[in-house]
Amino acid sequence: MIWSSIPDFRVGERSSWRRYRLWRQERNQRSARLERQLKALEDRIDKQLRRFQAQYSRAMNPTQPKDVAELLVPKSTPPLELATLSWLGDWRPSSILGLLSSLIKSSPTLASSLSHAGATEKAISQLIHDLRIEEAVIDEEMTEIQANCILRLPFNLSEDKSSNSTLAQVHSELKKVHRLIIKAQNFRTNALEMVVKKILCQSDAAEFLVAFAGIQETVHQFSKDYKLRKGPVSVSLSSSSEIVGVDSNHPI
């Protein structure tokens, strides 16, 4: 009886090994497929991040004085969008982290996927606080530049100063503005990279980038439609009924 049971045991053993090999093969195939999908997701996230980085690095390129105004007030940005969201030409860095904080509160899936979500939200609040301090420093520097322009530049045409001297002063102040724009762009880039690379996992980072791009597009489209509905701005120049139309592309 013992000897007769040995072949059955070996058949069962071989069958068990075949099942195990098949299971391991399927497991490895699924793992390889998941790895490829994760790599593809990572590549897409990096590609989207590079697009934002390219947008934020425009100020790094050699810039003529006349281009500083375009960086501060892009012609492609409607006035309402500039008034509500723009800070030195684009979103405030603290607003990027503020969007993440809002998403965590409004998205149960995002909040549940973050380990220690409460601690993470507290850390984000601290980062927002720190960024707002940096933004306030830049605002103060910008205010100082504006004061210098008002107090020191010779706007009075009758003032006896050479045009070359005046132009040199203007260029000097514009260089200061350009330096602040670069600093602001660096803060934006760092804030976005921090969210995507350090705080969120890949799937959450993808969700955030989709939300960020979607909100930007929604605000831009709403502002564009608002401008079309309202048309040109009219400004009264005196107490009389004289009204002068002004293109709404140029904020007053």
Distance between the termini: 103 Å
Shape descriptor reads: elongated
Strand content: under 5%
Biggest sheet: strands side by side, in what order?
1-2
N-to-C SSE series?
HHHEEHHHHHEE
Q: Main sheet, how many strands, which sense, barrel?
A: 2 strands, antiparallel
Secondary structure class reads mainly alpha
**CA-based gyration radius:** 29 Å
**What share of the residues lie within helices?**
over 70%
| Total domains | 1
Averaged pLDDT: 80
Number of strands: 4
Q: Which ranges are low-confidence, i.e. pLDDT below 50, for 5 or more consecutive residues?
A: 237-252
Annotation field: number of helices: 8
Topology:
Elements: H1 2-56, H2 65-72, H3 79-84, E1 86-87, E2 90-91, H4 93-106, H5 108-113, H6 117-152, H7 163-199, H8 202-230, E3 233-236, E4 243-246
Antiparallel strand pairs: 1-2, 3-4
Helix pairs in contact: 1-7, 1-8, 2-7, 4-6, 4-7, 6-7, 7-8
